[in-house]
Design a protein that fits this description.
Helix content is 18%, strand content 36%. The chain is of the alpha+beta class and 414 residues long. It folds into 3 domains: 212 residues, Rossmann fold (3-Layer(aba) Sandwich), CATH 3.40.50; 89 residues, Beta Barrel (Elongation Factor Tu (Ef-tu), domain 3), CATH 2.40.30; 103 residues, Elongation Factor Tu (Ef-tu), domain 3 (Beta Barrel). The strands form 4 sheets. The protein has a 6-stranded mixed β-sheet with strand order 2-3-1-4-5-6, with helices on both faces. Helix 5 crosses helix 6. It is globular, with a radius of gyration of 24 Å. The two termini are 34 Å apart.
Length: 414
């Protein structure tokens, strides 16, 4: 059964937690004891309805402040597919949490309060969805019940959001708009009779029908080597295999391949999954590849199809989101990890800081936590990287503080 990964985003009190709770409730994904506990908790709060937001606001601080702080992963399924929701915080000070939570999403669900319309945070949420190249964006205009389910106000929000998205000019994203009421379950799992003017599908129907990873199998083939298989037995004493996970594209027996960064060439002899030989390996499959030639291959190398080689980069330009409490300093050396490849690296320049809410570019010499910047990076060894727009699986990286071992930034090769 296919798995759809969903990243949710919304400003404070847009009803994100209630929406997720409603999806769980309507798909019978809540156990009886948990439902009873929520009933009692709602009564203690003095409200006359079941507060479904309590299902996701799990941290004490979240419940006290009424906000989402940490990224939570929520699982549910329908007869048609399985879902994983990365419930990310919407506050500007938790931008780093949102980026890490949404980094593997197939669809971004952005909530907008129908009363307040498009806010600066809405712009930020969409910009991050664009930065991560999330292929599908669903804008849920929530709390339609509080504006009398008026079509005119919904259309005004739709137009304003579309105008901002047009400034970014993303050709790879599809944007849909759905008017909903999380509190009363309108247009969540079934079409609402309160909004007959809306001719689209309910949120769940849309989520069940979206195509998962439509372009990954067509991307250029990338296989980062994680481990060298050399069995210490008489039966397999000549066996030498390269274990890893196909990052993008596919490989098959007989493919002419190039090993990077050495640029030596060979041909795929066999592909194994467990102890069985298979004719080909697709994206996200973990396999062992053997070659016809005894070439030097190590962990951190990358096997690619000959003719589809990425550029070997020692100097690269990238969009960087700073995750660390301590600001970036140009004099410091970091470790850059791209796939299984690791190299010392230094940020040689900051082109600008990008303000996601306004798309303004501000000059800077350092980067603070949660800021997104365009930077230049120099590495000690060549990195076989693609532009993130062309191949996200081989166009992203992290920067690591080599002394504390903390991940300080996530980057996207531009």
């Amino acid at each position: 059964m296919e798995v759809l990964r969903i990243a949710t985003a919304g400003s404070v009190d847009d009803g994100k937690s209630t929406l997720i709770g409603r999806l769980l409730y309507e798909t019978n994904s809540i156990t009886t004891d948990k439902l009873e506990a929520i009933h009692k908790a709602s009564q203690r709060k003095g409200i006359d309805f079941v507060d479904l937001s309590l299902l996701t606001d799990g941290l004490i601080a979240e419940r006290e402040q009424g906000i989402t702080i940490d990224v939570a992963h929520i699982y549910f399924q329908t007869p048609r597919r399985k879902f994983i929701i990365a419930d990310s915080p919407g506050h500007v000070e938790y931008t780093r949490n949102m980026i890490t939570g949404a980094s593997h999403a197939d669809v971004s669900v952005i909530l907008v309060d129908a009363r307040h319309g498009i806010l600066e945070q809405t712009h930020r949420h969409y910009y991050i969805a664009h930065l991560l190249q999330i292929p599908q964006v669903i804008v849920c205009v929530n709390k339609m019940d509080l504006i009398g389910y008026e079509e005119e106000k919904f259309r005004a929000i739709e137009q304003k959001f579309t105008e901002f998205a047009g400034k970014i000019k993303s050709q790879k994203q599809q944007i849909q708009f759905i008017p909903i009421s999380s509190l009363y379950g309108q247009n969540i799992t079934t079409r609402s009779d309160k909004m007959n003017w809306f001719k689209g599908s309910s949120l769940l129907d849309v989520l069940e029908s979206l195509e998962v990873h439509p372009n990954e199998s067509h991307a250029q083939a990338r296989f980062p080597v994680q481990y060298i298989i050399r069995p210490r037995t008489d039966q397999y004493h000549d066996f030498r295999g390269y274990a890893g996970r196909v990052a993008s594209g596919y490989f098959k027996e007989g493919d002419a391949v190039t090993i990077l960064p050495s640029q030596r060439t060979s041909t795929i002899n066999k592909i194994y999954q467990y102890d069985q030989a298979i004719p080909h390996a697709n994206t996200k499959q973990s396999v062992v590849i053997t070659l016809t030639d005894d070439v030097d291959v190590s962990r951190g190398d990358m096997i690619v199809k000959t003719g589809e080689e990425p550029t070997l980069l020692k100097e690269l330009q990238a969009d960087l989101c700073w995750l660390n409490n301590e600001p970036m300093t140009g004099s410091k050396t970091y470790l850059l990890q791209s796939g299984t490849s690791l190299s010392k690296a230094k940020i040689t320049g900051v082109d600008f800081i990008k303000i996601p809410s306004t798309l303004e570019q501000v000059s800077a010499t350092t980067i603070k936590m949660n800021e997104i910047a365009r930077v230049k990076i120099k590495t000690a060894k060549s990195i076989p990287a693609d532009a993130y727009d062309n191949n996200p699986s081989n166009g992203s990286f992290i920067l690591i503080d080599e002394y504390s071992n903390n991940t300080v930034a996530v980057g996207f090769v531009s």
